[in-house]
Design a protein that fits this description.
Length: about 425
């Protein structure tokens, strides 16, 4: 079902978002269309009377630290949303900043500051918030400098590459005078917003008993110095990529894990890849089983040597079943197609629906999820209550991922109580 305007519900908010932004040089000064696809039919209305078409005033200045693929995604989305603006950028790679600045100029005529060092980027008094979008292995070190600024911080996932640094990050966040939001944006994908609404808010399925989630996708793309091909710099595939999925499973289970078993390894991807004499050791497939304290059981399947992308979630309760699917033609870069199906008992209502964001939002990053992630961040800047990803939730997504990787290494199941104690994290149990 194609929709010009789609309302996406979560457990707290009805969100309605719009579609097309005209970024051509000839139309730079025209008001941005946020709620409808085409303003041509409204040209008879004086600009002063075009309330819905007015460009929002950007009231917050952001600095993006790390201007690779994800950093540039955040630059685009912040500009699209319009409630904040990109004030400046910083990266140790000058070429990366060159590319980011050139791409930024395609959709914005705002000048960018280029900071010479991290301290200047963090401590500029004109800046309201910081986005850390650097490679995984740099997150913890950079955060220790950024947090001295006292500014709100957006920290891309995963929080760190090992549990000790992740726990230290969470502890710093608890003591921080401002807030830190973690970049676990999959919770904002249209199908998962609907799934949370049905399963957790409406409780359409009754008590959740089992959760099954899978991702099939192509291999990791190229990154600067190929850091994502090595466990030491990425944290491992289940930490680097799958923390998104473990966050979703944790949210649905609404409980802490007690036992995890996983099997997987490196079968196809980068088996012959070397850089600076080091062989790639990144896993490309895994099967993970998670038992939760409340009796919920979950499994996760990962395969990263497929030609195209697909995700499927199946949640089964004592009164019904919910299935979400997303398919994306990776090679042709066609828009994703997502759906939700709900089957409730012999006499209960059942429905199937396509879910999507408007085209521009869908294309803005991670199938629209980054757009709503930014809404949550700016809402926090404006002291509004949100359900954004917290450092504690980011830590638990890493705990599940790290325990699964430990299980893969040992070949046996991991008892979470023992695992947490061994890693100095026992205080987080039942917390």
């Amino acid at each position: 079902m194609e929709c010009r305007q789609t309302a996406i519900r979560d457990s707290k908010t009805i969100i309605s978002a719009g579609s097309r932004l005209n970024n051509s040089k000839a139309n730079k000064n025209k008001p941005r269309l946020r709620f409808f696809e085409d303003a041509e039919g409204q040209q008879h209305i004086a600009e002063a009377d075009q309330y819905l078409y007015q460009r929002p005033a950007a009231s917050h200045n952001l600095v993006v630290i790390g201007t690779g693929t994800i950093g540039q995604e955040h630059m685009r989305v912040a500009t699209l949303l319009g409630r904040a603006q990109i004030h400046g950028i910083y990266d140790t790679q000058q070429q990366s900043m060159d590319i980011a600045e050139a791409n930024f100029a395609r959709y914005s005529d705002k000048p960018l500051l280029r900071y010479r060092d991290l301290e200047s980027a963090c401590n500029d008094s004109a800046v309201d918030a910081l986005f850390i979008c650097t490679p995984n292995y740099t997150h913890f070190e950079l955060l220790q400098t950024a947090i001295k600024s006292g500014k709100p911080i957006f920290l891309e996932k995963p929080m760190a590459t090992d549990l000790q640094d992740a726990a230290a990050t969470e502890a710093m966040a608890r003591a921080y005078s401002s807030f830190i939001q973690i970049g676990l944006q999959y919770r904002y994908k249209a199908q998962y917003v609907e799934a949370f609404h049905e399963a957790l808010s409406r409780t359409s399925l009754g008590k959740i008993k089992t959760i099954s989630l899978s991702e099939y996708r192509p291999p990791f793309l190229d990154k600067v110095e190929q850091w994502n091909k090595f466990n030491a710099k990425s944290g491992g595939t289940l930490v680097e990529k799958c923390c998104h999925y473990f966050d979703l499973i944790n949210l649905l289970a609404q409980s802490q894990p007690v036992k995890i078993y996983a099997s997987g390894g490196q079968a196809v991807n980068f088996v012959d890849f070397e850089r600076d004499g080091e062989k790639s050791d990144i896993d490309d497939h895994a099967f993970v089983v998670i038992d939760y304290a409340n009796g919920t059981r979950a499994n996760f399947t990962l395969n990263m040597f497929c030609h195209d992308f697909s995700e499927e979630l199946v949640v089964t309760g004592d009164r019904g079943r919910l299935t979400t699917k997303e398919v994306f033609n990776f090679h042709q870069q066609q828009g994703s197609v997502a759906s939700v199906a709900i089957e409730v008992g012999e006499l209960g209502p059942s429905k199937t629906m396509d879910v999507t964001y408007p085209a521009l939002i869908e294309q803005s990053g991670h199938h629209g999820a980054t757009y709503f992630e930014h809404i949550a961040f700016v809402d926090q800047l404006e002291a509004k209550s949100v359900s954004a990803a917290t450092p504690l939730q980011g830590l638990w997504s890493m705990i599940v991922a790290s325990a699964a990787q430990a299980s893969m290494a040992s070949g046996g199941a991991v008892d979470i109580n023992q695992f947490m104690a061994a890693n100095g994290l026992a205080d987080y149990l039942n917390n």
